[in-house]
Specification:
- Helices cover 43% and strands 13% of the residues.
- The protein is α/β, with parallel strands linked by helices.
- It has two domains: 129 residues, no CATH class; 187 residues, no CATH class.
- Helix 1 runs antiparallel to helix 2 and helix 6 runs antiparallel to helix 8.
- The protein starts with a helix and ends in an 8-residue tail after the last strand.
Length: 329
């Protein structure tokens, strides 16, 4: 068994010193604080060994003692439970945790293998979440929906047939570990209707099915309503000959026939004005969701996702964006 003081000196103190030197020294010297932290580390280790207290219990108590500070800290890039990994799961209180911490501090759900429930947020005690993990021996199940098809009918009809074959007791959302949809990421002032439907339909299907847990029939009805609200020919294409000519000229100049404001208003109404892709959902889902897109400036590829990557990415593989509003794809 290694000496806990030596473990602290070799593994933890260098990183602590690197972090503390970036802050203002307002409470004692760095050496004094380092020694107090070391003493605390050793005492917690002795408590674990002498009284057989589980490490998770000790860690939970340490977090609770710092609750007044931690409950104010929220991040989509760092799990504040372990401060080692990026978070994957957002609770209703706004705090986000990695999968490992959900397993450690959560409780296994009876009669449901690889399913854990975190009854309360370990930082503030308010939020909760239920998470189902992919079994280690199972291959990943991936659903990819592009924007092709006549007015988005093809992917929706295919999914409807698949759901019909599965039956009503087996929601299609529970069968996939990763769901991806395409989206151009463009946001011009005016849009051509066929372009909008082709570029946005894949992303909207994925967000509707897996983040909002809408049924396929609901998706079809909502997309039909969006089409009617956003692309009304009467406003631009009817009327006198002069109005028709003006409409054609405007379409040619702006490279689009319909204003995007009406589409955005309709999407905000259906998806919510402040709901983000990486955010808490009222529905228990373990499917990772991603929507592809490109930047307007240079067509650089981006991924709008409900998850963080476990490894660092190379600079030329695209950009990961977590805080995108659902309606703004």
């Amino acid at each position: 068994m290694f000496d806990p003081g030596l473990v602290y000196d070799q593994l933890y103190q260098p990183y602590w010193l690197k972090a503390i030197t970036k802050l203002d020294d307002t409470v004692g010297s760095i050496e004094d604080r380092s020694q107090r932290l070391k003493d605390c580390f050793v005492s917690k280790f002795n408590l674990m060994m002498e009284h057989s207290v589980p490490p998770a219990t000790i860690h939970r108590e340490c977090l609770r003692s710092a609750a007044p500070l931690l409950k104010q800290l929220k991040s989509n890039r760092t799990c504040f439970s372990c401060v080692r990994r990026m978070p994957e799961n957002v609770l209703s209180c706004g705090h986000a945790f990695c999968d490992v911490c959900i397993r450690i501090f959560g409780t296994p759900v009876s009669r449901s293998e690889y399913r854990y429930k975190l009854k309360e947020c370990i930082l503030c005690g308010l939020g909760s979440i239920t998470k189902t993990f992919k079994p280690p021996t199972a291959s990943p199940r991936i659903l990819s929906v592009d924007g092709g098809g006549v007015r988005g009918v093809v992917p929706l009809e295919f999914l409807k047939m698949l759901q019909s074959a599965l039956g009503t007791t087996c929601p299609i959302q529970d069968l996939f570990d990763l769901a991806l949809g395409t989206s151009s990421g463009k946001n011009p002032k005016r849009l051509h209707p066929s372009t909008v439907l082709i570029e946005f339909i894949g992303g909207l299907i994925i967000l509707s099915l897996f983040l909002h847990r809408w049924s396929i029939s609901q998706c079809s009805q909502i997309f039909d309503a969006l089409t009617k609200q956003s692309f009304q020919k009467e406003k631009y294409g009817s009327g006198s000959l002069v109005k028709r000519v003006q409409h054609i000229v405007n379409c040619w100049i702006s490279d689009g026939c319909y204003e995007v404001d009406k589409l955005e208003a309709a999407l905000q109404l259906k998806f919510g004005e402040h709901q983000r892709v990486f955010d808490y959902t009222h529905h228990s889902t373990s499917t990772k969701v991603a929507v592809t897109g490109t930047l307007i400036s240079d067509a650089f590829p981006v991924i709008f996702s409900s998850y963080n990557g476990a490894m660092a990415r190379s600079k030329d593989c695209g950009q990961l964006i977590l805080m995108l509003l659902c309606w703004s794809i």
